[in-house]
Amino acid sequence: MPDTDYGYALKMGRKRYQDALARGEYPYLPVLDNILANTDIVATVNLGVMDIPLAKMVGTKTAERSSSFASNFMPLLPERSEFGAKWTSLYKYQVEEGIQEPVVAYEFMNQFYVQEGNKRVSVMKYLGAYSIPGSVTRLIPKRTDDKENRLYYEFLDFYRISSNCDVWFSKEGSYKKLLELMGMEPDQVWTQEERLFFRSSYGRFAKAYSMAHGDQLQLTEGDAFLVYIEIYGYDSVKGQTEREMYRALMKIWEEIQLANRGRKVELIEEPEEMETEHKPSIWKWLLPADDMPEHLKIGFIYADTIENSSWNYGHELGRQYLEEAFEGRISTVVIEGADTEGDIARAIEKLVQAGCTMIFTTNSKMVNQSVRSAILHPEVKIYNCSVNMSYSSICTYYARMYEAKFLMGAIAAAVSREDKLGYIADQPTYGILADINAFAMGARMINPYVKVYLEWRRINHEKTAAERLREQGIRYISGKDMIIPRHPSREYGLYVQEDNGEVFNLASPIWNWGKFYEQMIQLAFESNEELEARKGKKAVNYWWGMSADVIDVICSGNLPHGTMRLIEFLKNSVRSGSFHPFDGFMYDQEGIIRCREGERLRSEDIVTMNWLAENVVGRVPDLEELNDEARERMQLQGIRVDESVQTEK
User: Does position 483 have pLDDT exceeding 80, yes or no?
Assistant: First the structure.
């Protein structure tokens, strides 16, 4: 056994060396000069003296000393060598006085390579230090379409405002998301205090992640940190100790594992997909028995009041349906106005204390607190109403509204003799662009010359979206899906405004949340073994449509008989699966083919749709154009570029 610090370091180096050989990997330190042999460097930037994160110190500038170290910077030369004596002397100096002289290093692709000071780096890594001072020169490669290169240029934009090189992500768009979660603007230059707070918080998290053996996962520390603050919030993270972070990290480890697997969302598109042979039916569960409860209490949480929100009003109708459908067997508890993280946390806790074993949080802004509360109360099933949200501690649910919007577009084109239709959307979150495009395609199926003029409700503008459409002479408009009880108006669903100002409703999409909740309760009582098996492996999103009777379209009795017959035919075809709105050739506004003849868009492509159909007139607004409410939604569910999409003109 080694009895000196150099002896221990040597043992660590030799072990890494042998492990690398066994895996067929290069066992020594990487050499930057070799890496750059076939790389086009377009700029050299002197960064001055900075604290280099030792985790980012990965190799040497030249090959001169590379073979003296294993790839973890631990020594390989004998203890009695001149090298060993110098290493030991440096170690003692660091312990007694502290190494102050900066190393000389080069930064390339956010990794650092030492030119002078290899042994200093080795000693500091052995001691478990977080960083080392260094005089750094940055080498910037030519911009290419390679993913790593694109990630690096995103990092350069981030570094320009933050002067932070600690964070590295494996997925594009993550630096932007980090800034959103921190409440920072994309071009906002950080103050010195903000830099210190972030570096300190991130450094503590990096140590906690290491304690949790995060190095065994494919996630970078940055990837894991993004999941962590997405759930807990950046402000709370700033005040946590390393030990507190470790404990909190362990509580959400299933979510970290899910992120490690790519945060894939499994879309359950029919209730029957989740049925199992061993799952008892809800009717059997609800019947009195010695070993089964006689009564089920369910909680509902709304972000606003029922009177002020058509969205909450729809869920409230669903809750009332549920109580009627299971009269005497189910009772429900409602909490309104849970608009902040604190409100949501208190609301969930209140429902848990009231004996609710199922809780539905009906707004996507509640998702992070839903995850936290689900971790605290594993005995309670918590569901959040959102789409494409990747968490394994809760399930999410949403409806395929695009099916109804397709029919609405067909109705609009059938009853209008005009080639201009209007569509009002809230904000560009997941699923919304699919609704817009489905409406446009339904209209084009009836009238190949029709254009759909798109306006956004939640942008900063002195005029309403409806007013902007009317100024363009557009009378047939798809507006909000339901009325707001406190402010009743006919401007919902598909409506037409006559020249005299009178408004007539033509059709309305229906969110049948009662049927949704009825079937959700039945699915909730699958075996605990199956639920546990999903944790850390799958994110389940119940995404049902007309086939499950959770989406429908109600037409005005004044529609022409032929139009009514056509819509019933289309509705039954969509419900049976014999017709799909996103089949066949589809082009976007840029003329790019999004789907070919004989093909159908995948469900994942529909949920994450980030393009507008060729017959849509309008665009996706920039973040700064949106109001505060829309920006908050965008932080959670804002559409992002899908790197897997392959397009061609």
Answer: no
